[in-house]
What does this fold into?
Amino acid sequence: MADRTPPLESGQLLSPELPILASPTPSAMVNGEGPQQVILVQVNPGEAFTIRREDGQYQCITGPAQVPMMSPNGSVPPIYVPPGYVSQIIEENGVRRVLVLPQQPDFHPGGHSPLHHPPPPPHAHLPAFIPHPAMMPPPPHLYTGIAGGVGDLSSQYISQYHPAQFFSDQVSTDSLSQHGRPSFVHRDDRASKAHERLQKKVKERQGVGGGGGQVKDSPPPSPRKSCNSPPTVDIQNGIGGKALDAEHRHVVACSDKQTGKEKNGELKELDKETQALLALLSNITKPEVSDIQAREAVVNWSDPTRPESENTTTEEEPVLPDPLSYEISISITGKDGKYQSKYSGEGLSATLEGLRPATDYHVRVQAMCTSLLGSPSEAVSFTTLSCEPDPPGPPRKSSGTKNSLTLQWKAPCDNGSKIKNYNLQWDEGKGTGVFEQCYYGPQKQYRVTKLSPASRYSFRLAAKNDMGVSEFSEVVDLFTSCSVPLPPFPPELEMAGVTWLCLKWQRPSSSPKEDDIYYILEMEEEDSGYGFQPSYDGEELSFTVRNLHRSSKYKFRVAAYNSEGKSNPSQVVEFITKPDRPSCPCRPVIRGRVQPDSFRMAWEPPKENGGAEITKYVVELSEGVTGASWELVYSGSALEHVCDGLKPGCSYRTRVYCMSEGGQSPLSETLQVQTPAVPPGPCQPPRLVGKPKAREVQLRWGPPHVDGGSPVTCFSVEVIGPQSDESREVYQGPELDCTVGGLSPGRTYGFRLKAANKAGFGPLSERCEVTTGPGAPEQCKAPSTTCKSPSCVVVSWEAPPCNGAPVTEFRLEWGAAEGSMQVCYSGAGLSHEMKGLLPATNYFCRVQAVNVAGVGPYSEAVLCQTPCSVPAAVSNIYLLKESELQRYGSPMDADEDEEGGAIHPPLAFSPSTCLGICWDAPCDHGSEITSYLIDLGEKQPIVVGPVTKYVIQNLQPDTSYRIRIQAQNSLGTGAFSHTFKLKTKPLPPQPPRLECTAFSHQTLRLKWGDGPAKTAASDTLQSHLQMEDKNGRFISLYKGPCHTHKVQRLNESTSYTFRIQAFNEAGEGPFSSVYTFTTPRSPPAPLKAPKLERLDDNSCEVTWEPLSHMKGDPISYSLQCMMGNTEFKQAYKGSATSFLVQNLQVNSDYRFRVCAIRQCQDATELSGPYSPTVTLTPQRSETVQGGGAAGSGSRTGTESNRTRQSLTDEQCAFLLLMVFAVIAILIAFVIQYFVIK
It folds into this structure.
């Protein structure tokens, strides 16, 4: 077992930020100078040590190994001594060790466990179980502490141990094989169930943060796993990782990160199946390495096997899912160095590729099962083979001349074999790509001589060792130096600007293309006194010199240089920058007076001419104030100009700019000029509009063609009478037409027109002559009217004077109102008959005459009234609503009300047998309506008084009727109205039967069904439930289509009265007869869980809270008790609130519950619900003593007394509510984050 146990990899146990001190320095450890200290927990062969890593996974380390644990505060943590052990402090080489030794005399000081001895047989006085061999005392454990001296470790570091509890149902003596190893038998059902349980437990640990705490809804831990322990890291040391799981724990300080986790909650122990699985995963043999090459190797390994020394039962045997996953990791910094994963899969072999030649590697394998990760196996070391060197880098030029090149290079990686020679090849400057060897030897530099100046040579390099020759490096091109270049040609001007000059020059023709030539451009400004100054230094063949002055002369020369030296400068050339454009001229001004068609303008030269003389000025003119379009009116060297050919009264804008060799100047400021206006020109003669009338003519004209530069604001019309030369003004205004009245018919008149603006009136137009026409007839006399019948009237009139032309037509207007008459006759007759009139109606009429001259004025209006007649037909008939139907009685009742003056209550009419109608009163035609005749078709017509509402009774339900009405007055009966179709409603439903289906002291559940009279399938039958209140009035409880209703908030032992009514589209049916239901008495409320107080081993006192009397009824209590799994039996019944229970058995559990009983006045009892159950677990004290064969010592064990109390119903409900609340919050967060966003 010790040979197969892999060594502990400390890199998996500690945080990477903390140092791992495998062999701490004695001085630092003794003096305690370091901020952190290391506690070494030694795990002996055959034992296991289980911890939880920082990623939440559990790791089981089997011995022999030393587990380094960090002490962050520099103090020695408390060491808990298991039962039957004593601690002993030993100091060796300045390092103190705490040995935990058993008290038995035959203590085995060696490193082998005494667990191979068979357990002692049980005695008659001992309990019927034998402790598992894993619970027996292990060999002494070594805890290496760090302190300043021997006396520093006081008694405070040795804490009191806590005795563990043993249960006989956990270990079976026949579950072990002959050699103490469980017999592993594969069973399909058991394996599948165990695998499901393992998956469920892993998911539960992941759900609460990696197993750091217990799931909320999980049952409480077993007594074996709920031992008292301080909040520190649990170190379980024993065979298979289970020896101290149930017997004792050793506690040491952990790292800073683990301490932070302990503050959030204690680390929970692993269950037996998980510990066994971790131990099995950790028991994997070291891998084997084969087929080792220079850059790859093949690694093989086998499945993990169970340790031979582990003693577990068949039920605790772990079930491995098939297949397992494996992870191969390698390290090049030693066995304890940093490992890197190279393979992860389910196979048992892997090929490691990409390795370095001649390198020492350490490889290990690690088994994984779901989220459980076993300990790494022992590392295996191997060394890859050597090979040829890596390709070297290209050689570089360290120095050179015109005829030589000195090359250097660096040594590449030798891959395990020393480089002995280098092979340098070149193409001899031919450029053909064919290389020849120019050097072969161990040196790292070489000088190539006898080369041509300014030539290119290509080189490449390879390295050689005992394993072979490497590949050649990349080809590099190197050049030899050239001679000093010749003076270049003078620079040339490529482009010139106001402040810059772009120059270019040529490369010296004698210089080869491979030579790197640089140029220096020098410039001298005229009259500066500084001489030539460098302006550019580079390899370009052109340059733009900026920041120069305008219209200035500059001298330039250029020189070339290379690595060999600098040439003489070129010849000097001169270039001049261009002049700048001039500034804008001053704003132009007006000289003299502005004429209606011209003006004189002048301007001043610009203040800055830009370095060149002004060659010309340009004047632009724009008509209007917007300046949308500009016209060139002058171009020359003068400083003034006369703008002529302008329009009077028009606004002009003018501007000026100048031009020189430097360009065009900006525009000057704009000058705005307004020419004065003149009177408008002559108008065209006015023209006649339409035919001339007898006493007036309509004239129209247009504006003059020339407005004089100002809008025409007024026109004047003059008229010249017939046979006279005198004129008079008949119109003056801005309109373009006018009507001239006061003329005589058939005369000739002359008209002239003139226009005016703000400058005055213009000349008169030519004369226009117009002759007036004949006149219209005079006004007619008032017409006369004669009534032939109520609907027919004859109107007659006389012809008026014709006024020079015969009357050709008469127009008669007729209407019901004086202001809204219309032409009803047009002709030459002197009378007209009006038909289709309304009786007893006032009408108005008037007449006018028409001839060829026009239409005469209307006569005076005449009023005519037609005689009375029978009433008109009723136009509309309406059906009364049900609410309106109840407010009206029969016609006979209405008559009696009007005659007698007595007021009777309204009668209730059913819409199933009655039809309430109303209609619009028709026109009575001058005679008051006395009655109405209602015709139903089949029945005798009904005669009613002068009303507009009536209820027709004694009709058939759900029947259609055709109704029409006619009105009557003193002159006769009017016409019938149109026929209207009305229908009666069906009969309303009968009330259903009401019954009580469920009841309590505060509620009644009522149910009802359909009434005896079934309604139509299309009707929606609904119910109206009412209850009688204290005042005898019925109040509404429910109204709707349901057939049940629950009445709540009632009083106990009280009678309530109900009635129900059915209604549908036909109306509301009658209420049912009254139903009376009585609520029962209410039982007492549930009591809280009783309180238990143990008096001694055989008695206890049970107390509970009292209840107050319920409406005068006394309260008694019933206490029940259950022993073990038997039924509850009554232990007490009475009015007291406590009871002393005696004669209790020592080793039995008791459960108690209590309920309240109401003593009613009628000698009946009402029992309330029982309270939550409380459990009384008596104290048990058991002693385990053992005596066995020779060589075995005695051992004692003491069990702690525990009182276990189950959760109450309120606590369970609160836990369930909290779980549901957390799940709801998580679901809402997921929906918000993944669905909405």
The helical segments are 26-31, 188-207, 256-264, 272-282, 882-885, 891-900, 1209-1236. The radius of gyration is 64 Å. The chain is about 5% helix and 35% strand.
